[in-house]
Prior knowledge:
- Chain A is an alpha+beta fold.
- Chain A has 23 helices and 34 strands.
- Chain B is of the alpha/beta class.
- Chain B is built from 5 helices and 5 strands.
- In chain B, helix 2 (36-43) runs parallel beside helix 3 (62-70).
- The chains are: A alpha+beta, B alpha/beta.
- Chain A binds chain B through residues 703-704, 706-707, 710-711, 714-715, 717-723, 725-726, 729, 731, 738, 741-742, 745, 748-749, 892-895, 897, and chain B through 10-11, 13-14, 16-18, 20-21, 24-25, 56-58, 85-88, 90-91, 105-111.
Amino acid sequence: MKELKLFLFRQNWLAKIPLWILLTIPFISQLVGSVGLVGWLSYQSGQRSVENLTNQLMHQVSVRIDERLNAYLKTPQQVVELNRMALETEELNLDNFDELETHFFRQIQVFQSLTTLAFGNVQGETIGAGRDRSGIVAAPDSLLSWEARGTAPNTRYFYAVDSQGKRLKALHVTPNFDAHQRGWYKAAMNAGKQTWSPVFPILNLPIAAVSAVTPIYQNNELKGVLTSEVLLSDINLFLYSLNFSRSGQAFIIERSGNLVATSTKEQPFVQNIAGKQLIRLQAVNSQDGVTRAATEALFEKWPNLTQIGSSQSFQFILNHQRQFIQVAPYRNQEGLDWLIVTAVPESDFMQEIWHNQQQTWLLCGLTLLLATAAGIITARWIAVPLRRLQQAANALTEGELSFPVEMGGVGEVAQLADSFQQMARQVDASFRLLQASEQRFSTLLDQIPIGISVFDPLGQHILMNRVGETILGQGIVPDLPSEQLSTTYRVYKAGTDKFYPVEQLPVIRALRGETISVDDLEVEVEGRRIPLEVHTIPVFGQRGEILYAIAAFTDITERKQTQQLLADYNRILETQVAERTEAVQQQKEILETLFEHIPVMLAFHQNGTLLLVNQEFERVLGWLFNELISIDLLDAAYPDPEERQQVIEHIQAATGTWQDFHTRRKDGQYVEVSWANIHLSDGRQISIGRDVTHRKQLDRIKDEFISVVSHELRTPLTAIRGALGLLQSGFYQDKPETATELLRVALNNSERLVRLVNDILDLERLESGKTKLVKEPCNVADLMQQAIESVQMLAEQSHIQMVSHPLSIQIEADSDAIVQTLTNLLSNAIKFSPIGSKVWLNASLPQAREADRATEQVIIPPSHLLFSVKDQGCGIPPDKLDAVFARFQQVNVSDSRKKGGTGLGLAICKSIIEQHGGQIWVESGLGEGSTFYFTLPVSD
Amino acid sequence: MTKRVLIVDDEFEILFVLQRVFEDFAGWETVTASSSLEGLLKTKPNHLDAIILDVSMPEMDGIEFVERLQSDPTIADIPVVLLTAKVTPSDRQRFATLKIAGIVAKPFNPMTVWHQIADILGWSI
């Protein structure tokens, strides 16, 4: 809370500062800061670059000096070396001083940097040639030669020479000359090899020179020393000519600190105090302040200068000025070991930078002033329109929606003003909308078909819509304490007479923060209980505090009733569904059972793919379903393409009509199947098939039978009709013989017709069971006797001898039928026997008389009597043995007719015997005669 | 010219009746045979105008008779009239393929049967 106040205070304090100052101050601060930073950085970078540049410059200078020294000092060494080799190889005669002089002279002419070339022998003699560069003994740069010869060569003579080396005149004499005491001779002796002499003055003048020297040996015997001299003043000139900066210097010192050469042209020799002798100038004693100070600084840094092994840079302050120093060692193979020192004062470069610095500061100042002015103006441009906007906003806050806002300002400020105007218009429009919305809300609230009431956090009822009032039967009761809510509005716990506990009332719970739906609440209005469904929600403020609770409630009387109805209905429905499910299950079971067990072939298929077949289908065609799915059934069952095409068309047409097809089974046999194809609604097809092979056979047999019966009946009728018709015409009244014959034909055929009709009727009655056989005990011997008697006449006519062995045994049988059977068999035997032959009739019990034969084909059960009728006739072909018992199956029809047969006798016998539980069969061969057997069960 | 017909039937009594009808009423000459084989043997030497043929006969039936007759070019053109008791539809189907002049059913009216046959053969009476 304290922090918040502080924050607000700060805000207020900040709010009082005018905008243009707020805009200007940071602007100017940034400007001053950046200008200062730019100046400082440019100064810093200037200094750093000066340092870098200086170091680079001094390094370059060192390198150039190094190179120049190498080049300059190489010549004397090379010349000395050349001459040494010439002397040692005796190309030059070291004893011939004239020759040496001429040689030296020529070399001096060629190598112009050399001042002297000389040879001194071990005897102290010396010969040399030179160039008087400084004009010490002759005019400057004039050529000369000198010599000191003889046994006591202690006087040296200088001669002027012409361009051919020819001596012109003596110029100078050095008395008390001792070549062996000269620096160059001693240096060569000391080193014992080619080297440099120490720096020495020329002719006791402060002109510094240095010589390349070498001892000369012949056969390991020292012969003398060769020298070649150059002036160090030439290096001074070179250093001076470098002129690498306004006041920079370069100088060369020995490691001892002795000056060798300097760009200030100061000579490295000075008079000693006595003024008599030249001594080396210590650099620290230089007359030049920079040389002196730089060397002092060197010694300060490296008390022993031999410590400096590589190029080094450092700075020091001289007269408040920074000096950059670089020191680089110079060494060569002949033993020189010097230090090249370059010194540059910072001021040489910084002056320009300082000048630039001043200009930078001036420009920065100007920029600062201009920018400040521009900042203030810009800030005011922004601030003024904003102030106008502020006034308009204040007006808006106070409700003055139409306060004019002047358009103006710049850029975003102008857009802001524009946006503000739009906003003001929108606020105005929104305000109107809000008013309208409020109006609508109020209307809506009253129109909502549920009760709505609102409670404040203290439990006070603050709003209720009209529906709510209607449901509760009263409106808001003002200042009602929340603990009286239940009693005042008569709120009951549903189904009880207890008031609803106040602390559990949905609104009270919602005020505790719960969101609730309840429907166990009833109100009593005008003595009637109304069940209510109540939803309450708490409405939270931004900080999570409860602002109010809203209760929505509806009269659920109808719903409660509906729910009850629905519950009842659901219960009924469930029961019905369960019943139906069971019924469907049962139906399914029935259908499945039917499908599998119905003796009709059923196959489901779709688009030529077999889906399911039943057992009958598998049985009739011989393929199991598993086999069917891996073959093309149409190809296999209808190998004839024409038949197959018809089958396919029948399947495609699927009209449900029946059509018979000659169908091949798996085993290759053919069956007649009658097919009907039907489309099912789900796209599948069902093929229904009946194996009609048997029926077709029956049909054929029936057709044949009718045809035969018809023929058999018509044939005698034809004769009768024909004969009688002719007689009736009267044509034969005068021809009694023909008329008699015609009458005989008619009569004869009438009898035949009667027999035929009787036999047909007998057979039909026997087979249909209409003739009940009356079984009674009877004696077999009697039956056999009766039968023989009935055919006795026929046998006598054909002169057939009947042979019989009657068996006296009781059986249970229809005696008439058995006699008829025996009579039929006997008369057949007689008819087909040749005249004079025998016919046998026998009866036996095979068990009792084991000798009697049992046939191969027939197994005679125990307790059966076996009858046999044997003849000596033409016999029956083996393939007709079974057929003889069928109807109208005489082996020889015309033969039979001649003998008055109807073709039904054996069929009648068979029927009678089978109805007695016996069997009948014949054994025969063509020409062997026939034996008809039958069995009858013996009664117990 | 007097017509000459061959009658083939295994029933003697029917053969006898037919012979009387054709000779006594139609005025045709007749040759008779009581089996197909006998009929075939008698066809060639007898310059026949027609053959009146029973169907249902043992050994060789009338159908085979027709086939054999018509396989011999010298007698193949002799018209054949079937005179048969085989009159069921299935029987008729069997005869449909035969090249015969016509069929007359048994039993027949002896007073009109020869008219029927003459009609079939296109003979004027």
